[in-house]
Each structure stands twice: as C-alpha cells, then as structure tokens.
Write a structure and sequence with these properties.
alpha+beta, Immunoglobulin-like, 6-stranded mixed sheet, 5-stranded mixed sheet, 7 helices, 25 strands, 16% helix, elongated
C-alpha cells in the first residue's frame, strides 16, 4: 500500500515552500506534486527528476513518473534513511534547457525501531538509468522513425546519356526520381511483302535456271514443281528459300473386264454382329457369313416339306430368329449389288450403268433457247420494265420502275381520260360540250369576264374565221372577235 501526500509547488513564488512530514526508514510513501506558475496549473510534459539533500549531507537523484499533469515522487527507504530536515527540488530537461522548481522541505521524523534503521548513503537512481540508456545506445544505436521510399517520376533521357536517380523527398521519406536514357536506334529488318514464284523442272535436286512465274504452271506427270519465296527487308537485304514437290506418275490402268474375279480371305466370327458402314471387306463378309449361318440353322426346324415358312412358323419363331431374317434380307441385297458391280472395290460407274439416268438426261434441253436466251449470261439493267424485242426475246425497255409505278391504281384508258381534261392555263382547243364546276372566264380587251351559267347548263365553244362563239345549252351567249381572245 502506498501513502500519498499531495502538494502544490509554484514556479514563480519560492518564498512559501511547502513542508512535507514523513517517517524515517519508510518505503511506501510518495508525494504527488501539482505545478503552477503564478497560480495557474501547468503540465510539465516531460518526466522530471527529484534531487534530495538529506540531513546528513548525502544525496538522492531519482526519476519521477507522470500521471497526466501530476508529478509522482517516489520516496525510497534511502531517501528517508536520515532523520531531520531534507531539501528537495524537481528538475525538468527540455532539449538543451533545464527548468527547476523552488526548494521544498521534507521533515523526516525519527523512528525508535533500531532494526529498521538503514545506513544513509548516496542514491543516484536517475543517473544509473541514464548511464544504462547510454550503454544501450552505444550497443544498439539511436532508434529513429521508420523511413519510407517512394518512386517519383521516371523520365526518358537522351540517347547515349547516363542514367540518374535523385531524391526529391527527405532523408526519412525519400522520393526517388529516375532518368533512364533512350536506347540506341536499331537497324530494323521488318519484312515487307514476300514474292512467291513457280517453275517446272525435270530435277528435284537442282534449282531450275529458267524463268520463274507468279502463276502455278501445268506440271507433267513425273516432273517437279519448284517454289521460290523471296522476302525483302528494309535494310536492302533479302532472303530466298525454295521448296519442291513432284507430280505423280501415271499408274497402270485398272481392269474393266466384265468377268474380273476378286479373291477375299476372311474369318467367320463366333458371334453375329450386324455389318457396319466403314467395315473392311473381309470383316463385312465374315459378319455376313455368320448371319447367314445363324439364319439357316434357325430355319432348318421351321420349314415344312415344301420348304415354305408358314405364318404360324414365323409367329412361333423367336425375336432373334425373325431378326436373322431381316438381317439376311439386307445381306442378300448387298450381295446382289456386289455381284452387279463384279466385286470391284475401285469400280467406276458410267452414266449408262445408272438406271434411267441417261434417258432422263437425253430428254433435257442442252442449252436454254427461246425468248430467255438473251438473259442467260449476264444481269439486266436494274429497275427497268421488260419487253419483248423485235426478235421476240426478253429485253430491257426505257421505262423505269418509277415511271411504271405511275400507272398503279388506274382503272381505264389513260389517254382517253387525258383527252377529257381542260387546262387551267394557256391555250387549248376544246371540242364538244364541256361541263364546268365553276363559271368560265374569257379574256376580252385585257379583262377577264365571267360567263354566267348554271352548273346544270352545258357550255360549248365554236370557232370561225373571225369569232369565238360561246353557247350555253346550245344558245349563243357571247361572240368574241378573234383579235381579243387572250
């Protein structure tokens, strides 16, 4: 348990030093000091040291602790070893500067217990701590803040210049700026367009010396086709490479005799599997033989005396037996085809050998004839109407698709309808009786004059050598000299 005494020490008023009463030999006492300056409480911000000069003249130099702004002075047994008046003083170090408090008094009351008496000596706890820290610094060095390094700018320098690094930050927070020189200009050999040429030769080992062509020539059987590839480069050089291939020799003619025989060796499998597309011929024949053998064995007990398989016998047969018959039909069909083709694996059919094909082709027209013969080799002019020309052939007219569209929706003879129309302006010869929707006008003496009539009247005009005569319902209503008609 610690016994604490609270005191206040004013840095500006040393005339009234506080007094603290303590007991000789105690080690569980401490003093809590509040610093003021002219009565205003201050925070020391650093940990002070306590200096005590004991009544017998020995010295105490120990470190204190801070609790917020309160300084806590530990009173060790050595601090209180000698009874009497002791002088105490706090000292605070700020960098190269020192700040001390006024001296305050410790009254160390004597004790009557002799076995607790401690021999009074000097005690330099703070100095010993400082010396220990110095030794640690000598061994480990000063502990600084962690440094940082950042990459700043990276600049491309001139070709042939030196690379450089500069620190635009601080020693602890470095920012490194790099200058990297541009590389030397290289001599590129980027490929341009390659030229590929061809030549025929009788040799497959000696490069031909004739004329090379960009087109592939026709190569005779047994001759060689050489290919020369030239790749030019931007530095003026080029590379040339060759490849060679041979046109195959003409093989012996295949036999086309009608009675050609083919010998095939095959093994009959123990179990039947249906022949499949892609089977080799000997495999196919082996499967077919096994299928026929199974069929004949199954039918031996089914056929009656006339060797006919009755419906009852068919129905009593197993599914497998009926399957054998179906497979046998397919196999026999294949054998029939093989017999027709004379079992020639490389046989070539002619048109005459394909049923009805030649007769069908013979019935077709060799070339297109008639009216469409003029349009078999090229396209027609776009968006034009088609007509038949003087030879009865399909031809393009001058009428465009747009002009043809103008006739869309007409219901009668277009010219007849146009003949019935009256112009809204200009001169026009009008014959017969015309029905008007409004009163007609004539230009007389520089003025337009309206001819009065009813919508139900028929207006007609008549010309003679000197006058324009106007009739309404066959009655002459106006007669205009020819010189006044506009």
């Amino acid at each position: 348990m610690k016994i604490r005494t609270n005191i206040t020490v004013d840095l500006w008023n040393p005339s009234v030093p506080p007094y603290v009463n303590v007991k000789q030999g105690d080690s569980q006492r401490e003093i809590a000091v509040t610093l003021t300056a002219g009565g205003n409480e201050i925070n020391p911000e650093v940990i002070p040291d306590i200096y005590i000069k004991k009544p017998d003249g020995t010295l105490i130099y120990n470190s204190c602790t801070l609790e917020g702004a309160t300084i806590v002075i530990p009173l060790t047994a050595q601090s209180l070893a000698a009874a009497g008046e002791a002088k105490a003083e706090l000292q605070m170090t700020y960098g190269d500067g020192v700040l001390s408090t006024p001296i305050f008094n410790l009254t160390i009351l004597p004790t009557n217990i002799d076995d607790q008496a401690v021999e009074s000596t000097n005690e330099f706890g703070a100095l010993q701590t400082a010396l220990q820290e110095v030794e640690e610094l000598k061994e480990n060095g000063l502990k600084g803040d962690a440094a940082t390094i950042q990459i700043g700018t990276v600049t491309t320098g001139a070709e042939g210049s030196d690379a450089s690094v500069t620190n635009s930050g601080t020693a602890g927070d470095a920012i490194l700026d790099f200058v990297i020189p541009r590389g030397n200009t290289g001599n590129g050999i980027n490929s341009e367009s390659a030229a590929v040429e061809y030549q025929q030769s009788d040799s497959g080992t000696e490069i031909p010396s004739g004329t090379w062509s960009q087109n592939i020539p026709e190569v005779a059987n047994g001759s060689y086709l050489w290919t020369r590839t030239t790749i030019p480069y931007t530095d003026g050089n080029s590379t040339v490479s060759y490849s060679v291939s041979k046109m195959g020799e003409t093989g012996p003619a295949g036999s086309t005799e009608a009675n050609m025989d083919m010998v095939v060796t095959y093994d009959t499998p123990a179990d039947y599997t249906a022949p499949a597309s892609g089977d080799a011929l000997n495999t196919w024949l082996g499967k077919a033989t096994r299928g026929l053998s199974n069929l004949f064995s199954s039918l031996a007990s089914k056929l009656d005396s006339s060797k006919v398989l009755s419906e009852t016998q068919w129905n009593t047969g197993t599914v497998a037996e009926r399957g054998y018959l179906a497979d046998a039909k397919d196999i026999l069909d294949e054998f029939a085809q093989l017999n027709t083709d004379k079992a020639n694996a490389s046989h070539t059919h002619t048109i005459a050998q394909v049923s009805n094909l030649q007769s069908t082709l013979n019935g077709k027209q060799a070339t297109i004839s008639g009216g469409a013969s003029t349009i078999t080799s090229s396209n027609l002019t776009a968006n034009r109407a088609l007509v038949s020309n003087g030879s009865g052939k399909v031809a393009v007219s001058a009428v465009t698709a747009t002009e043809l569209g103008y006739l869309d929706g007409t219901t009668g003879n277009v010219q007849a309808q146009l003949n019935e129309c009256v112009k809204t302006s200009g001169n026009q010869v009008i014959a017969g009786v015309k029905q008007f929707n409004s009163a007609p006008q004539v230009l007389y003496n520089g003025e337009y004059r309206t001819i009065a009539y009813s919508r139900n009247n028929a207006v007609s005009f008549s010309w003679n050598a000197s006058y324009l005569e106007i009739y309404v319902d066959a009655t002459l209503v106006a007669k205009i000299p020819m010189g006044f008609v506009g």
